[in-house]
Amino acid sequence: MRKNLIKAFTLAIAVGMASSVAHAGKGGGKRKGGGGSTGGSGSMTIVMVTDLNGNTLPNWGDSIKFAISTTATTEPNVSVECSQNGTVVYGAAAGYYVGYPWPWTKVMTLSSDMWTGGAASCVAKLYYFVGTSTINLGSMNFMVNE
What is the domain count for the chain? Predict the structure, then answer.
């Protein structure tokens, strides 16, 4: 059952990222509700939460979160997807705003049932939602070492 949940979650992340790419740069329009305005930009950096070997770099089994900055919205989100040899082995997403109902998901442990060790290539994406659209604010590629 857990593998099915991971696959479903990974699929949801992939669909969200595909939507993000499709809507990248389309910041026009007005945001409805309390999420801030459209437009602007964003940046993010990795913050080590648990650094098992003390090398200050993300390794398999370490925990990370992100320091983000954006003028585009008051409700930014970050997703992370990691792959080994072209196969997605990890996916996670979290809201980085006050009132996000699952704040503990900001801490992402770099491992999964499908990722039991070894290096992986990862991409983190910063985005927000306008209705059913996903607006991409930026992304960063990073390596996770063994």
Answer: 1
How many other C-beta atoms lie within 10 A of the C-beta of residue 145? Answer: 14
On whether the CB atoms of residues 134 and 23 are closer than 8 A, the answer is yes
Query: Which residues are within 8 A (CB) of 66 and not within 5 positions of it... i.e. 6 or more apart?
Result: 44, 45, 46, 47, 78, 96, 106, 124, 126
Show the tokens assigned to 38.
Answer: 């459209």
The CATH number of the domain where 20 resides is what? 2.60.40.10
pTM of the model: 0.73
d(CA 129, CA 11): 18
* Element housing 95 (H / E): strand 87-95
Mean of all residue pLDDT scores within the chain = 81
Per the structure, the complete domain to which residue 50 belongs is given by 2-144
Check if the beta carbon of residue 68 is closer than 8 Å to that of residue 76. Answer: yes
pLDDT tens readout for residues 8-47? 333 343 334 433 333 333 333 333 333 334 456 899 999 9
| CA 79/CA 88 separation, integer angstroms | 13
Q: How far apart are CA 116 and CA 84, in angstroms?
A: 11
Reported as a single tens digit per residue, the pLDDT across 82-91 is 999 999 999 9
